[in-house]
Amino acid sequence: MMRMKNSSRVAGVAVIVSKTGLADNFSPHTTCPNQNTGVYSENYGPDLANCNVTVWNPFGNGLSYEDFAFPVFALKDENQTQVIRKCYEDHNQRVNGSAPKYPLCAMQLFSHMHAVTDTVTCMRRTDLQNRFSINPEVLCDPLSDFNVWTSTRPLNNSAKGHAADESVVIAATRLDGRSFFWEQAPAAEGTVSGIVTLLAAIQALYPVTQEAPPTRNIFFSFFQGEAFDYIGSSKMVYDMKRNDFVIDLDNVHSMLEIGQVGLHSGRSLWMHSDPISRQNKSVDTEVLEMMDRMRSAAAGLKLTVDHPSVSQPLPPSSFQRFLRERQIPGLVLTDHNTSFINRYYESMYDDAENLNVTYPPGLTPDEQLVYETDAAKSLAEVATLVARSLYVQAGGNESNLNNITADPKTVAQLLYGFVIQKNNSWFRSLLPPEVTKKGVNSILSSGPPQFYIGLGPRVHGPAHSVTRFVQYILANLTGSVTNLTESQCQNPSELSTENKDLFSYFWVSGPASVNSTSEPFCVRASVRLSKAVSPAFELLEYGSRNYSTWTESRWKSIRARIFLVASRELEMLTLGVGVAVLLLSLLVTYFISSKAELLFSSARETPTTTY
């Protein structure tokens, strides 16, 4: 690609996406992800900044950050690929070393982008049009969507700022991924492993926290846009600082983040902590206690838990955005001690195969949905560890730990839905009826979901498909079924018995019965959405160094066409004949025009006179 970028002869590139002959590693991200918006800088651990100690993504080639002056298309449809390949082989392929004969096969790529230069220029021009134009044309949009959060004890969503008598333990993971191509981000190891682990941990925790509540509240958060300089987490921290969220930073006791936990090699997990904040004695004491609790929670599980033996910075994580504002005790749990084990970090090859999600041949889709793969069993163990650790960290009684065990079947269903096929019977039962009945326009299209954040509210409706999946899965895993009708479920504030400040209400399809019909019902749960858009766009600081400034260009259409082109000689001959015909037609036209009176006037009649 870099050779083509530096060539003046390349006008466009079409990449055939193939799973055969896959490279041992491929990561189009940088070697130091999100290095400019994390906590480490010249003012905070300068020796640890810019991956000076640990290069987290050694396979990164930075391709996603290159500026290509020509379009690059990914071809996924096998039929289209075959048509293009056949056209090339029939017309362009050399035979016995000789140059191919005309006509040759050509391809034209259309991908006109409205945005120019960078975010600062693009947003400034968009703002000018919005102010002075009657019909403004938007050139680009900030990447945006929603975070998903819930808690073991409901929090009043209408009350903002410091929550009195609340101490929370935050458990977090990220919702998004990216790759070189737009909306081609399966993010299996990079993102799905964390999502599935935390969802399964929440399901395992919920019954016990209701029967034997810990002294602290456990706040679960799924951050959107983290692959693009921590969009979701920076927004939540920003809102906490401004007292525009249900809790503030003073309410946060500690934090546990789930990173890449696919367990590619062995059964070892690593607890990463921040060496700078641990110079504070109270923070260091709490971090050491968190590590001890996690080791104790691993007893009886087929996992080993340890911490890096050398002092190194935190891996890329949402926790860094919290540390930029407050020294909070916390850990990041991963399957790598130093550099990522994931060889396809932030690429289109970080898929089900990379996460080792495979099925025996001959299984139907419904059988695959509940089949407990090795990956599902491993992540169930990790989820059990996370759930037990969080319960003890929140002040729960250790005698209840044996009652906290993640369900491998739930993990299997989650993995199947997130990396194999989102349009499955379980996902359909959890979503609203209007979503499942939209057909091809539904978020339940074929294949796994894509984890690129995109422009959620503008393109995907209320929220990105992955955000909605997690929102409704959380509601069904932690909520309670009510006897409300559909109208009551959609307008609970009209009922004195319901509290919309503490709960959200979801009208879901329900599981299909024997006759393939389902009975919708209403679920009450303390699951909420909060905006995931960079504070830079609220502050109008489009060149901010503190917050993400990623935008996506607007465009009219993205398409391509193939056709045959003639030789240069034939083209010149055709042009010459055309010019000759034009000159001849002009000459004939001039001749006819100059002789028009002679050619087109009728003979004069002899006049007659009558006396």
TrEMBL record:
Nicastrin small lobe domain sequence ranges: 1-115
Major location (coarse): membrane
Gene3D superfamilies, per the entry: Zn peptidases
GO cellular component, one term: plasma membrane
Record's bilayer topology term: Single-pass type I membrane protein
Locations listed in the record: Membrane
Superkingdom, natural source: Eukaryota
InterPro entries noted in UniProt: Ncstrn_small, Nicastrin
Family per similarity comment: Belongs to the nicastrin family.
Protein name per Swiss-Prot or TrEMBL: Nicastrin
Lineage: Eukaryota, Metazoa, Chordata, Craniata, Vertebrata
